[in-house]
Structures are given as C-alpha cells and as structure tokens.
Amino acid sequence: MADAAYLKAFKEYSREVATFGDLPAMEREFYGEADRPAAILQASVVERALEVAIKKKLAPGLSNEFVKEMFEFEGVIGTFSDKIAIAYALGIFKSHTFHDLNIIRILRNAFAHLSKPMRFVTPQVAGMCEHLLIPDIAGIAHAPHAFYELAKDLEAAVDRKNPKTRYITACHSIALGLLDFANQDAAEPFTDSILP
Q1: What single-letter DSSP state applies at residue 136?
Q2: pLDDT tens-digit profile of 184-196?
Q3: Residue 31: which of 165, 131, 179 has the closest Cα?
Q4: Residue 12: how many other CB atoms lie within 10 Å
Q5: pLDDT in tens, 175-184
Q6: What's the distance, CA 92 to chain centroid?
Q7: Rounded to a whole number, what is the distance in angstroms from the first to the last CA of the chain?
Q8: Fewer Cβ close by (within 10 Å): the C or N end of the chain?
Q9: What is the pLDDT of residues 125-142, one digit of tens each?
Q10: Which stretches of the chain drop beneath a pLDDT of 50?
C-alpha cells in the first residue's frame, strides 16, 4: 500500500542531509546543556555514519529502491543494533568500536524511552560512560570544537573522565572514523579500518 502524501513527505524530509547552514542550530541541539537531546542526537549521527559505511561495502549495481528498503526500520538492516552487527561482521571496525557502539546504543535507547529524569551524571549512566574505550585512545579520540565552544562548564567539557565528554567523544570519533572509512579509495584493502 502506498504511503499517504503527508507520510511520504515526512519520510523524504527525514532522509535529507543537513547543510552547512543547518550547522549552528544543530550544534546547539547536539552540545547544549540538556543531556537527553544530546545523547539521542549524537547516537543518530553515529547510526547515520554506520549506514554510509555499510553502503560503501554493498555490492555494486543494487537498485536504490532495494538499498533504501534494506535500511528502512522494518528492513534487514533497519535498527541501530542491526547496523552495528553487520558493520562489525563486514570488518568495518574492530572490537573496541563494536563495544562502544553497543554502549552508545543502550544509552541512546534509555535516553529516548526512559520516563524519568536522566542525565550523564546519573550514577548508572556515568558508569556506562566510564566503560567507553574510544575516549582513552590517543590519536583517535577527540570531541568536536563546538562542544567546547558551547559548554557552560569548559573545565568539565575538557575532562576526559566527565561522562558527557566521554559519550560525545566516543560518538564523534566513531562517526568521523566511519565517514573516513566510507570515503576511502575503493582500491585500499577492506580490512584497513582506522577504527580500533
């Protein structure tokens, strides 16, 4: 059955890629004081980067419609969990990234669905963030400059032990690594992922 016009229009809008002009408003949402939207939005960027990296490894010649259906929520690679598993199985990243992506996924789901107050300083959330591995890897891990520029407490933002900083750093570093992977020259060996 065909989607109603309003649903089709919304789906098309939700697939649009942000432009440079969208950046200031997006950064305020991504790195503002409120933890819930920051957690959800950071994870959505990572999930989108996963999709881009997986598409890089798909067989050439697949129809756009077929690929689009694969990534629909009901599709074979429709959930965040599906994308993580497929990308790991394809060798796009290694165990450290797989570990951190699952923590990000669990936290994103909790921030999206928990019906009680939740912040990065909530002890259980901080405990999860403490176990992220990527923020401790020199040369790979870094938070975006906008995170520091928009931080109300710069000292906390630069502290790699701060749970929000760890989460933002893991999400940002993984997303950049996935996008770098997707932009690699096709001639480069498939197993040469820059992500641990």
Answers
A1: G
A2: 865 444 444 556 6
A3: 165
A4: 10
A5: 999 999 998 8
A6: 14
A7: 43
A8: N
A9: 999 999 999 999 988 888
A10: 187-192
Instruction: Tell me whether residue 184 is exposed, middle or buried, using C-beta atoms within 10 angstroms of its C-beta: 0 to 12, 13 to 18, 19 or more.
Output: middle
Three-state SS at 133: coil
Annotate 105-128 with DSSP letters as a single string. Answer: HHHHHHHHH--S---TTSHHHHHH
94, amino acid identity: K
Distance CA 166, CA 195 (A): 17
The amino acid sitting at 117 is P
Left (φ > 0), alpha (ψ -120 to 50) or beta: where does 18 sit? beta
Query: Are the C-beta atoms of 43 and 105 separated by less than 8 Å?
Result: yes
By the 8 A CB rule, do 174 and 46 touch? yes
Task: Give this prediction's pTM.
Answer: 0.84
Cα-based distances in Å from 109 to 106, 113, 121: 5, 6, 17
User: Dmax of the chain from CA atoms?
Assistant: 54
- Whether residue 71 contacts residue 48, with contact meaning beta carbons closer than 8 Å, is answered with no
Q: What are 144's two structure tokens?
A: 């975006």
Contact in structure between 52 and 179 (CB atoms under 8 Å)? yes
The CA–CA distances, whole Å, from 151 to 59, 69, 118, 167 equal 43, 39, 19, 14
User: What are the tokens at 171?
Assistant: 């999400």
Domain 24-182 annotated CATH 1.20.120.330: yes
Q: How many whole angstroms separate alpha carbon 147 and alpha carbon 29? A: 10
Amino acid, single-letter form, for residue 171 = C
